[in-house]
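BUG-396 | component: ligand-complex export | severity: low

The export step for S-adenosylmethionine jobs runs without errors, but we want the raw record kept on the ticket for reference. Input record follows.
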Amino acid sequence: MPTDVITQKVSDRYAKAVSTGEQMCCPTSYDMGHLKTFIPEEVLKISYGCGTPAGLKTVQAGETVLDIGSGGGIDCFEASRLVGPTGHVIGIDMTDTMLEIAHRNAARVAANLGYPASNVEFHKGLADAIPVEDDTIDLIISNCVINLTPDKRKVFQEMYRVAKPGGRFTISDIVSDQTVPQYLVHDTQKWGDCLSGAVTLTDYMNGMTAAGFLGIHLVKFSPWRVIDGIHFFSVTLTGYKLPLAPTASLIRYATLRGPFSRVVDERGRKYQRGVPQPISTDDVKLLSHPPFADHFLLTADPVVLDDHDPRWTAVFPAQAPCTWRGHYALLAGPFVEASDDDRHIYRRGEPLEICSKTLVVLETKGYKPHFVVLNRAGDRVSGEAVTCSPSEGGCC
Ligand SMILES: C[S@@+](CC[C@H](N)C(=O)[O-])C[C@H]1O[C@@H](n2cnc3c(N)ncnc32)[C@H](O)[C@@H]1O
């Protein structure tokens, strides 16, 4: 199907939803009571997102925020409040009906917030040809839009182009647990339903890495629908465009503290727990970001860590029975690959089947933030405990 046909069908679908009052897409976790205090009902009732990318303490005062596929403007208006009167928000959308509602309400929201003038502007534009200058955006947000775009590679490149060096994104979207089959891809109706254009989490994250973003990781994950055996999830992801200027720093080495025994980052660099590794100034910039910072000891001189050191954070295999109950562990990033102390190799975004013994390990404080655990078993599983070890080709 030609990409312009998909784009037109999606646009028509959203214009129609607005005119009929149809509810679309997915559950979000907005605090509607709070939003109602400054955003008009006309905007709130056409909220078609699948997350709250502007509401996750990601937006900071004075920033310039871009919302790709801003719809009626709900996230732009929340970002407007959060950036304050000195900040700036740009919403882009391809659908005129959406833009008209957003435009109409911008002045009302500014008045409700007590701003002298609106700090939000809305423009007509496509996600794969963003009408914004290079290197100008502190934070890119988007809520349930990129799955609707036929050429995601171009969208990610555009995001990278407009982000300031040192900028970042927080995006909510729909992804699938397997490649969506052709009979759904070519169903134009299901494009608008956020199904046909969904890609796997791994493809989504790898697409962003290919565009240049780093430190990409999941910050939220919720199951949404299962259609023909394909699981669709709502996810929120964050990632960074590294600053250009070298930071003056004495740091030359990184030592992985744990809990993983080994990790591979998005540039293919490998780190072994406890072993100091020489790093570049770019690595220093990246490893100082929140998703990495807790994992590493960054030092001027090489520091070897072992299990006597309180900074060493290994979690060893649990002494627990191994039963298979349908659980899968999905590495949330920012590493593209990571190993535990039971020789599992987890790959970012890819579900790996695990037994109850591994589940105990992944639910410990050290591992929990780095995994999403799913259960794919249709019925309650009544399996007995088994003996397993990696050498027997088993799980643990
Ligand atoms: C599911 S709605 C979400 C709207 C808004 N983000 C929200 O949370 O309410 C998708 C929006 O993205 C816009 N959209 C879809 N594909 C687009 C594209 N390729 N370029 C620009 N806007 C697009 C649609 O017009 C629609 O307003």
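Assignee comment: Attached the raw record above. Residues 7, 10-11, 14, 25, 47-49, 69-72, 74-75, 93-95, 98, 126-127, 143-145, 148-149 surround S-adenosylmethionine (CB under 6 Å).
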